[in-house]
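Bumping my old thread because nobody answered last time. Still need a sequence for this structure:
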């Protein structure tokens, strides 16, 4: 059925990633998290396509042309930009993300960089990934500006100062509806 080493490796990777996302979110002041990575449809993809150095979703897309796991995951987790794409009379368009989900996206991207890059991780790693993949994403301009700001702040100031900045901006957003970015 599934290679036991791939199962073990995938579970280790998603547990490490999930722990890091949770740790970062809690430090930023966010406490509600998703667990869809542990759903059967997402686990099957991970068990089959686990490689250890990148998401199994990318391997599934290369082999099958799409990923049922990704379709499931992005539709249940509003910290992914794809969740905020809608279709209308003029075609597909990006809608603005709520700031708390932008912060969660920041935490997810930083945690993914830490998890997959291991000792090669640097404070500019998530920004570099963001910039390298910008041509294959569709952000609302406000969302793109805000996530870029947070990732650039991390690259320039380090994690501790970035978390303090995020806590300030998140509190402002909670009380005024505007992050100030």
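Sorry it took so long. Here it is:
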């Amino acid at each position: 059925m599934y290679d036991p080493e791939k199962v073990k490796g995938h579970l280790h990777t998603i547990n490490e990633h999930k722990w890091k996302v949770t740790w970062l979110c809690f430090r930023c002041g966010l406490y509600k998290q998703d667990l869809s990575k542990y759903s059967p449809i997402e686990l099957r993809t991970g068990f089959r396509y686990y490689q250890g150095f990148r998401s199994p979703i990318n391997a599934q897309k290369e082999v099958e042309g799409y990923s049922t796991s990704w379709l499931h995951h992005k539709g249940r987790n509003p910290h992914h930009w794809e969740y905020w794409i809608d279709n209308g009379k003029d075609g597909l368009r990006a809608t603005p993300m709520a700031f708390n989900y932008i912060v969660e996206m920041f935490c997810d991207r930083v945690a993914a960089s830490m998890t997959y890059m291991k000792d090669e991780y640097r404070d500019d790693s998530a920004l570099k990934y963001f910039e390298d993949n910008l041509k294959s994403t569709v952000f609302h301009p406000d969302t793109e500006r805000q996530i870029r700001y947070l990732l650039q702040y991390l690259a320039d100031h380090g994690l501790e100062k970035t978390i303090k900045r995020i806590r300030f901006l998140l509190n402002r957003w909670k009380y005024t509806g505007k992050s100030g970015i």
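Helices lie at 4-28, 40-49, 56-64, 68-74, 99-117, 125-132, 141-157, 159-176. Let me know if any region looks off to you.
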